[in-house]
Each structure stands twice: as structure tokens, then as C-alpha cells.
Amino acid sequence: MSQRFESVELVDDSTVRYFAVAVLVAALTGALAQVTVPYPFSPAPFTLQTVGVYIAGLLLGPVWGGFALVLYALVGVAGAPVFSGASAGFGVITGPTGGYIVSFPVAAAAIGALVHRQVTPRRLDTVSVVLQVIALFVGLAIIYLIGSVWLATKLELSLGTALVEGGVVFVPGDVAKAAAVMGLVTGGYLAQYRSITG
Question: Phi and psi dihedrals of 87, rounded to 5?
């Protein structure tokens, strides 16, 4: 007598897709972190990590975008050389520039929340470009604020000095990175990216 078994779906397909894309975004952020240039006006280097933050928020929304950057941080803390300059370990987080890494999931979640206004990401071509740009700058402000306060605490700088050296001096480069990401979006590639759920 043959037995019939019903398959039980423990994790739905959309969750698997979100997780897979989050892993890819975390890996992309790690790769972008290796583009590191010492910055004469700041104790923090210039890197391309924020591009990963922008993409996480825009593409994955608040929950999975934040998760992607939490995953990135955890992998680096565990010892994978994914932080700037192929660095790794908990010491990076507790160091002067660790606040930036801590800020990344918060910024990605904020970008995703502003752009999508729901847990599940929407198609980017249904969201106004103005709103997307505003969201990127809100995310950037969060990175600057958390990163600068952390920098001030670790290096015993005044908050004003830390905000200048840890934020203001990076504005031109970060605006250029935001413009490049928006070029991908308005150019059609990310804008036409359908919801990961199908």
C-alpha cells in the first residue's frame, strides 16, 4: 500500500528570495568597502560602502534592507575581511569609525521605509524620483549623525568638530554616489526591478 505525503512549505518562496538578495547586497557592500581612499580632512577614509546602503534601502525596503546591512556587519565581526581596507573583527566596530557600520542598517531601514512605506518593497518606477532622493539624503544624515557622534566619543573630539570631520567633508563624494545610484534607478535597471515576490 503506497503512502502519499503532502509537502510542507517551511519557508515561503518570497522569504527565500528576499534572503538571497539580502545576502547579495551584503556581499556587494563588502566588495564596495574595499574601495578605500585615505581622506586628509577626516580620520575616517572615503569608501563606497554607502552605495550598498542606498541599494539595500531602495531595493529591499525597510526590513530586508536593514537585515542585509546587519548581515554585513555580523560577517565582518565574525572575521571575514569585509570592512574597509579588508579589515575585520569586533575591534573595528568598537573603533573610531565603527559608528558608521552601526549606522548602516538604521539608514537602510529608514531609506526603505520612506521609499516603500510598507514592509514589502514596491517597484521603484512607482515611486517618485524626488521621494527616492529625499530618502537617500535622510539615510545619509543618519550615517553622518551616528558616525560622527561615535567618532567624537572615541577620539574625544567636540561634536561640532566630529560632525565636520565625520560628515560634512564627505558630502561631495556621497552626493556623487547618490547620483550614481539614482542614475541606475532612473536609467531603468533598478526602476523596472519587480517585487521579489513576483
Answer: -85, 165
Residues 6+ apart with CB under 8 A from 96: 43, 44, 150, 151, 154, 155
* C-alpha–C-alpha distance, residues 66 and 25, integer Å: 11
* 139 CB-side CA count, 13 A: 38
Which residue blocks in 48-97 are alpha helix, DSSP H?
Answer: 49-77, 90-94
Dist. CA 186–CA 66, nearest whole Å: 23
Q: How confident is the model at residue 197 (pLDDT cuts 50, 70, 90)?
A: very low
Give kind and range of the element (H or E) at residue 46. strand 46-47
Q: What amino acid is encoded at 54 in this protein?
A: Y
Phi/psi for 191 (5° steps) reads -60, -35
Confidence of residue 11 (pLDDT cuts 50, 70, 90): low
Q: What are the structural domains of the chain?
A: 13-186 (1.10.1760.20)
DSSP letter, residue 123: P
Q: Map grid coordinates 552605495 to a residue.
A: 51
C-alpha span between 57 and 114 (Å, rounded): 9
Closest CA to 168 of 143, 136, 131: 143
